[in-house]
Structure formats: C-alpha cells, structure tokens
Amino acid sequence: MGAKRNILITGGAGFIGSHVVRLFVKKYPEYRIVNLDLLTYAGNLENLKDVEGEPNYTFVRGDICDYEQMVELFRKYDIDGVIHLAAESHVDRSIKDPFTFARTNVMGTLSLLQAAKVCWEGNYEGKLFYHISTDEVYGALEFDDTLFTEQTKYAPHSPYSASKASSDHFVRAYHDTYGMPTIVTNCSNNYGPYQFPEKLIPLFINNIRKGKSLPVYGRGENVRDWLYVEDHARAIDTIFHRGKVAKTYNIGGFNEWRNIDLIKVVIKTVDRLLGNEEGHSLHLITYVTDRLGHDARYAIDSTKLKEELGWEPSLQFEEGIEKTVKWYLENEAWLDNITSGAYERYYEEQYSNR
Ligand code: NAD
Ligand code: DAU
Questions:
Q1: What is the largest CA-CA distance in the chain?
Q2: pTM of the model
Q3: Whether residue 112 has its Cβ less than 6 Å from ligand 1
Q4: From CA 57, how far away is CA 13, in angstroms rounded?
Q5: Is 351 a catalytic residue?
C-alpha cells in the first residue's frame, strides 16, 4: 500500500477522464478519487459504470467555474492532488461558440487554480496541480518531418486551442508567481472507447454502421498523430507520480496518419467486423467544405517522456483500431443513447432538484 492521497479528477465523466478515473480507482485502492464533472453534453456517467460502486470513488456534479463550490470541495475532501481534464474539447464547437470555450477552459481553470491556492495556503508540500493540455497549442506543422517538442513556441489558431493555451499559461503563472507545484502535459489526438461521437473516429464508425455519409473536411490531407486513450491514461499516471514539478511533457504516439488514409482503415475494419465485403462502405466518403483555419499537421515528439520517465505507447495502431471498432460495435446501445440524446435527459431528471 502506498501513501493515502485525496485526488480531484475534473472532467472524469468525459472520454479521457473516464479512463483516468478507472485506472486510478482500480490501481490505487488506498487513494480517494473525487470525480468532479458538470455533465455537459460530453459527460456521461455510463462511461464509469464499472467503478461507480467502489469505496474509494466519489462523484460530484459541479462546475469548475463555480469558485465557491471548488473551495468547498477542496476543503471537504482535503484534496492534495488535482488532475484537471474538464474542458470544452471539440474544435468545431469552438468555431461556432468561442465564449463557452473561454468560460470553461480559461475561467474554469483559473477558478480551480485559485481554489487550490487558497485551500493549500502556501503549504505546497506533497501537493500537485496537474493540467492536461493539447498539442494544438503549438499551432500547425508543415507537411514535412518536423515535430512539436516541449520547446516549440505556442501559436494556437482555433478558439479551442487559444483557450487551452491561455489555461496552460495560467497554470504556469501560478507556479512562477505563487510557487504552486504544477505540471502541464500536451498530448496528441486520442482514440478509443467512450469517445463522444462528434470526433472523427467514433463519428465515422457510427455513420458507417448506420449507412450515413462520412464528411471529410477539405481534401482529407490533414495529418494527426493518434494515441490509444489507455496509453494516455498510463502516461498521466506516470507523470502524476514521477513527473518533475514545473515541467512540461509532450505525449504522443509517433503515429501520424493523413485523415483520408485513416478513414479508409476505419472503413475497412468496420466493414470486416460487420461481415460486409471489402470496400462496401467506401461510397459513404463525402468531401465537404473545410474546417475554418484547419491546422495542416500535428505530430508530437515524446522523446523526453520516454527518456526521463520510461513511458512509451504500448499499442500498435492496427491493434488499437481493431479494439476501438470492436468496442463501439459491441456497445451500440451506448452510441444510440448518445445520438438519441436519452442520456442527457436522464441526467437532467436525476440532478435537477439537487
Ligand atoms: P470530453 O469533451 O470528452 O470531456 C470533457 C469533460 O469535461 C466532460 O465530462 C464534461 O462534462 C466536463 N466538463 C465540461 N465543462 C465542465 C465544467 N465547467 N465543469 C466541470 N466539468 C466540465 O474531453 P476529452 O476529449 O476527454 O478531453 C479531456 C481533456 O484532455 C481536455 O482538457 C482536452 O483539452 C484534453 N485533450 C484531449 C485530447 C483528445 O484527443 N480528446 C488530446 C489532448 C488533450
Ligand atoms: O490534437 C489533440 C486534439 O485532438 C484535442 O486537443 C481535441 O480535444 C480533440 O478533439 C482533437 O482535435 P481534432 O480537431 O484534431 O479532432 P477531430 O476528431 O475533430 O478531427 C480529426 C481530424 O479529422 C481533423 O483534421 C478534422 C477532421 N475531420 C473531423 C470531423 C469531426 C473530418 O474530416 N471530418 C469530421 O467530421
């Protein structure tokens, strides 16, 4: 048994957060894991059914922007570590509604930082505020072999990445100004179970199974670097426990794919697993108007994390995609519940009087 810890994980009902909560609840029975989540459209407690009864797990519905509630939460549970994942996370939504992104990602992070500062009262021994960020803060790479390193200058383009960059700066400011122990990590595109079907891979799996068109932005030539979500959760565990305070670590899969090539792998895998003949769903590909300001290419150099802390991705992409597609096809009710909006209505009824 290790030391007791009281860890606040924000955004734990979302995609990555649910994998982090599951890993910590199962691996560290001696910790108390408090999952704070607002249950926005992206938060879904179905993602955590297998841990909800565990004695070391507590769920609290709340808003990171509610400073008073955050102070109360820190005091009530004597929080000594924060893993902050709560955010608005979808680039297309940020283009339509940037204010929500500034509110949650910037003001929400600031309110959480200030609550930690006030409750920790300058006694930072054994404390850590770990902020989960994105490679998108570095801007876009050319179609060459350059990679984002921890030294790459911030150059965000979308309202989403601008809001994440701003929150990263606030986290570092709390270290530099008040001495709060902080860590920031910047990760590439995650994929795997429980991802909201607005993101490329689950959206396309869902559309293929329904015979709906697959909207490829622009010419499908943009490049992303894909990492299986459980590998990200393992990296977060490693860094939370052994990362150096005030440092930044890049997390990535060394796994670049042009969107159109990735989409063809997804189509092939879904068709095979559904028993369709090869090429059956290719006709669903539909080229549509490009995303505004669409970043050409992201690719992460995670050498530092490997050399300093020994982390590297465990899963080959082919294996990860196979597991992912299988999971969605075996959990069609999860997808149907989300696409019908049923799960959001359920939470409104459950929590509206609390
Ligand atoms: P997600 O959208 O699936 O989940 C976000 C969660 O935050 C949801 O459960 C939502 O209910 C919650 N939330 C939103 N606003 C809140 C608020 N005001 N108060 C409390 N909870 C709130 O996101 P994700 O893809 O799991 O991403 C998690 C984090 O990781 C984000 O900070 C994101 O920027 C970062 N990130 C994501 C990726 C990726 O590929 N998905 C890659 C790198 C970094
Ligand atoms: O790089 C990390 C980021 O990855 C995270 O910080 C974000 O939270 C996460 O959403 C993701 O951002 P992207 O914009 O890269 O992911 P998305 O799944 O939206 O899109 C992946 C690529 O596919 C991107 O180039 C846009 C394209 N795309 C996306 C959708 C939803 C399409 O061509 N068609 C689509 O319908």
A1: 63
A2: 0.98
A3: no
A4: 13
A5: no
Question: Taking the C-alpha atoms of 139, 144, 145 and 149 in order, what is their torsion angle to the nearest 10 degrees?
Answer: -10
Residue 130 lies in a domain: yes
* Assigned domain for 48 exists: yes
Q: What domain range is 306 assigned to?
A: 6-195+226-256+293-317
User: Ligand 1 in contact with 132 (CB < 6 A)?
Assistant: yes
Catalytic status, residue 135: yes
Give the distance (Å) from ligand 1 centre to CA of residue 23. 17
Question: From the first residue on, what is the mean pLDDT of each consecutive set of 10 residues in the chain (354 residues)?
Answer: 89 98 98 98 97 98 98 98 98 98 98 98 95 98 97 98 98 98 98 98 97 98 98 98 98 97 98 97 98 98 98 95 98 93 73 54
Assigned domain for 265 exists: no
Strand 256-258: give its sheet, edge to edge.
Answer: 189-191, 223-228, 256-258
Catalytic residue among 136, 168, 256, 301: 136
Question: Which residue lies with its CA nearest to atom 35 of ligand 1?
Answer: 133
Are residues 73 and 8 in contact, defined by beta-carbon separation less than 8 angstroms?
yes
